[in-house]
Specification:
The complex is a heterotrimer of chains A (327), B (267) and C (258). Helices cover 37% and strands 29% of the residues of chain A. Chain A has 327 residues and is α/β, with parallel strands linked by helices. The longest helix of chain A is centred in the middle third of the chain and has 18 residues, at 187-204. Chain B has one domain. Chain B contains twelve helices and no strands. With 258 residues, chain C is mostly helical. In chain C, strand 1 and strand 2 form a beta hairpin. Chain C has helices at 2-17, 19-47, 55-75, 77-80, 82-87, 90-95, 101-108, 116-131, 138-166, 176-186, 196-204, 209-212, 214-219, 227-230, 235-256, and strands spanning 49-50, 53-54. Chain C has one domain (17-256). Classes of the chains: A alpha/beta (327), B mainly alpha (267), C mainly alpha (258). Chain A binds chain C through residues 9, 11, 37, 63, 66, 69-73, 75, 87, 90-92, 94-95, 97, 99, 101, 104, 106, 108, 110-111, 115, 118-119, 122-125, and chain C through 2-3, 6-7, 10, 13-14, 17, 88-90, 92-93, 95-99, 251, 254-257.
Chain lengths: 327, 267, 258
């Protein structure tokens, strides 16, 4: 479906340094640094997959998205999406993709959202019947019935974002590219957006590529993640497996009435993080001590009133990954 | 003083960075100057007797205009200033131990000067070496040169003082664009930036010479090319002083009143 | 095209929402055109003629330039302001839409306030046409219309060149101003007053003479060569190198990212 092979892209950026003498020097000679934005990128994505594309800023995420959408022509390498090469078959290719750029709007600012949708209908040459069907579906699923009569500039970020997503799907694209779609949104809107994307992916088998810094997006939506750093794909795998592999350490929070917390300290595989008046935090290394055993042991020593066990958050996982790959 | 120098410095270094912009800016101004001179040359060839000055004087005038464009451009308004008034942020400025009028004035001056310094030398140097009578001729006397420099600085000051008035009017208008537009029209036209004042119909000239606009670039450049000589030069200088004094006085008083209004209304 | 009209009405609706600032800008444009006229008026009053052209002849050239410039500025505003479209990412968005890029740029901005200059031009023509010595037969009227059309094409072409250059750099493009604003300011007189060299340059480099000079000569009766009257049609050929430059610039943009 989406196939990238050995994609390479290098940028030349002029060096600009501060200070008067450097500025005068720059008048006569410009120095450039080369940046390998995409260094031999290859991956495949099947139809209907939802992939999280993560990496630190400047790693090459947006360059990859630009290549996939056809905006950027790579220096070398192949990219075939449903039989088309994005930058060569632009108009054809672009009819099948929808893009949401989190920080930029595709809606016309001063006119009612409805009018923006109408214009998109004409731009994508959608016939009236399909347009009405899609519109009704999107409007009800995203709950934007009341706002589509207002101009974009009058909407809150949450409302606008939902309209942006609707706008990117009006033409029933097979592929949806989301670049930081939940940035700046309140919790309620974030959940609404995530639910919607899940639904679309399930019902319409839309392939979704999601680039984001919000790890909760990743946790909620994607099973597969691609980690890019310094222009290279460093990791391509399942989120759950990674979590299991990466961190056997689980965080346990417990409340207890009587008993000495010091008795726990000598249990192997457990270490005490904090204890304040019977509310304690413990970390458990599940390679050494299984969760079920741990619970048995602790409850035999302490009179537990509450206990919760949490795995590594995706956030922590990613931080440790970044550290490991030094990006 | 130090902070005003630092304004200048930052602007200057900034403009050096954009070397492409600097070079093409100079080329643009140069082309503009040449075309203007050719235009006047066409009129000169048609009827030299109606020409109010010698052709070489006119050419020198045009080159002076181009060289010092940054000092006399009327469309430059400090957007920070305008914004701080319209958003009300000016309240913060009031809490600081500085004189606002002075700060705005010197900021405007520093910005213009930084812009001008980069452009004026290349234009002057090339213009000097053009073939007669299209060249920038030297001033008729050392006295004229000194007075030119003095009157240029005074002229710029008058322009800034007048644009300060426009800025202060922002306190009283919702959308300041209209005021600026009207000001732009009068300032551009009546200061002689579009065509030098001596080319205006004579009766209109006497009227315009009474306005502060005629004291901005008209007086300095005409002194330089020798169109105003002798005692008239000092009369022009005096006129500049008068207009500068008046516009600064009105400006300061008006600003004071406006600021009081802001404080009273609670910002 | 239908879609274009939809954009047209959308822009119109949008700008009408801000009635006050729209009319203010419109007025500002008018004032600018007026001061340009006033300068011409003062000069012609003092000298009575320039290079043998009368006041009445000169203002026809002036009005033609204003007319065509304002139309080009209004409808090709997207190209004129292309640096903004690139800088804020709007252009990338256009590349993701399955429609012709040039069409998208033209419909991204239609600035009706620019027509303030048009109002000035119409007023001038309203005076110039009846008071001139020209006998307004069908061929003369056609010539005038062609002059305006040709001017619009030339200015549009220059805007396209400007936009193409924006693909390479966003700084240092000030000089294009010479060919737009500059052409307007200096082209309000017949080009021949600047000398034969200028006429040659502006026939073979950027063909202003094809709409501002040669047809004008026919219009005012200084030349009987009726070929001059249809020369403005030749301005269309100017669009060819403009379009080529555009294509090259676009290729450059898509291979260097943004």
């Amino acid at each position: 479906m989406i196939e990238l092979k050995n994609i390479k892209k290098t940028y030349k950026i002029a060096k600009r340094e501060s200070g008067l003498s450097n500025a005068v020097k720059a008048l006569f000679k410009r120095e450039y640094t080369k940046i390998n934005a995409l260094d031999d990128i290859s991956f495949n994505i099947k139809e209907g997959e939802m992939v999280g594309y993560i990496g630190p800023n400047g790693a090459g995420k947006s360059s990859t998205i630009k290549v996939i959408s056809g905006i950027l022509t790579p220096d070398s390498g192949q990219c075939i999406i449903n039989g088309l090469t994005p930058w060569k078959d632009r108009k054809e290719h672009v009819e099948n993709i929808g893009v949401v750029f989190g920080q930029r709007s595709q809606l016309w600012w001063d006119v009612p959202i409805n009018d923006s949708f109408e214009l998109l209908k004409d731009i994508y040459s959608i016939d009236n019947k399909t347009y009405k069907k899609n519109l009704d579906e999107l409007v009800s699923l995203l709950n934007i019935e009341e706002v589509i009569k207002t101009p974009a500039r009058m909407l809150s970020l949450g409302q606008r974002m939902r309209c942006e997503i609707a706008a990117s799907l009006i033409h029933d694209p097979k592929i949806l590219l989301l670049d930081e779609p939940t940035i700046g949104l309140d919790a309620v809107s974030k959940i609404a957006v995530r639910e919607f994307i899940k639904k679309i992916n399930k019902e319409k088998k839309t392939t979704v590529i999601l680039t984001t810094h919000d790890m909760q997006d990743i946790e909620a939506l994607t099973e597969r993640i691609l980690l890019i750093g310094n222009g290279k794909i460093l990791l391509d795998g399942s989120l759950n497996e990674l979590k299991k592999k990466k961190s056997p350490i689980k965080k346990v929070v417990l409340d207890f009435k009587d008993g000495q917390i010091s008795e726990i300290k000598c249990i192997e595989g457990l270490s005490l993080v904090s204890n304040i008046n019977g509310h304690a935090e413990i970390s458990v290394n599940t390679d050494i001590l299984a969760v079920s055993d741990m619970i048995k042991l602790i409850s035999s020593k302490l009179n537990l009133t509450d206990i919760s066990v949490a795995g590594t958050s995706a956030e922590e996982l990613v931080v440790s990954l970044y550290k490991e790959f030094q990006i | 003083m130090k902070k005003y120098l630092s304004f200048f410095n930052i602007r200057f270094v900034n403009s050096l960075q954009y070397r492409a912009a600097a070079v093409t800016g100079i080329i643009t101004q140069f082309a503009w100057g040449i075309m203007t001179i050719l235009l006047f040359s066409a009129f000169y060839k048609t009827d030299a007797s109606s020409f109010p000055m010698t052709f070489n004087q006119l050419a020198s005038y045009i080159w002076m205009q181009q060289a010092f464009l940054a000092l006399f451009m009327t469309w430059y308004f400090d957007t920070d200033v305008l914004e701080s008034i319209s958003t009300g942020n000016i309240a913060y400025e009031l809490v600081r131990p500085i004189d606002i009028y002075n700060m705005w004035f010197t900021k405007n001056y520093a910005n213009r000067l930084a812009k001008a310094v980069l452009r004026c030398l290349p234009i002057i140097i090339v213009a000097i070496f053009l073939p007669y009578p299209y060249n920038l001729a030297p001033p008729p006397s050392l006295e004229a040169l000194l007075l030119t420099i003095l009157t240029i600085f005074l002229g710029t000051s008058i322009l800034i003082a007048l644009s300060m008035l426009v800025c202060i009017s922002t306190f009283y208008t919702v959308n300041n664009m209209g005021v600026r537009m009207v000001f732009l029209f009068f300032a551009e036209f009546l200061s002689g930036a579009i065509i030098p004042l001596p080319f205006f119909p004579n009766n209109i000239q006497t009227f315009i010479n009474l306005t502060p606009f005629a004291a901005i670039q008209n007086i300095p450049f005409r002194i330089y090319v020798g169109h105003i000589t002798g005692v008239a030069m000092y009369k022009g200088l005096a006129l500049q002083f008068i207009w500068l004094f008046i516009s600064i006085l009105i400006g300061r008083l008006w600003l004071k009143k406006s600021l009081k209004k802001v404080i009273v209304q609670g910002g | 095209m239908n879609l274009y009209l939809k954009f047209f009405s959308m822009h119109l609706k949008g700008q009408m929402q801000y009635k006050f600032s729209f009319f203010l800008t419109l007025f500002g444009q008018f004032i600018g055109a007026f001061s340009s006229y006033l300068a011409l008026y003062f000069m012609m009053t003092r000298f009575h003629k320039v290079a043998d052209y009368t006041f009445n002849e000169v203002i026809i050239v002036f009005a033609t330039m204003m007319f065509s410039y304002s139309i080009a500025e209004c409808f090709m505003r997207g190209f004129d302001q292309f640096e903004k479209i690139i800088a804020n990412g709007e252009f990338d968005r256009m590349l993701i839409r399955p429609k012709n890029i040039i069409f998208q740029i033209m419909t991204s901005k239609i600035d009706f306030s620019r027509l303030g200059k048009l109002i000035q031009a119409i007023i001038i023509l309203a005076y110039a046409i009846p008071t001139s010595e020209i006998i307004w037969t069908a061929d003369k009227i056609t010539t005038l219309l062609l002059m305006i059309a040709g001017g619009t094409i030339i200015f549009s072409g220059i805007y396209i060149i400007y936009a193409s250059l924006c693909f390479y750099t966003l700084e240092g493009l000030e000089f294009i101003n010479i060919f737009t604003n500059g052409a307007l300011e200096f082209g309000k007189y017949p080009i021949s007053i600047y000398g034969k060299t200028m006429v040659k340059i502006f026939t073979y480099f950027i063909p202003y003479t094809l709409f501002q000079y040669y047809p004008f000569l026919y219009l005012v009766g200084r030349s009987q060569n009726s070929l001059y009257a249809i020369l403005p049609i030749g301005t269309v050929f100017f669009l060819i190198p403009c379009y080529l430059l555009w294509k090259i610039g676009l290729k450059h943009y898509t291979s260097t990212g943004s």
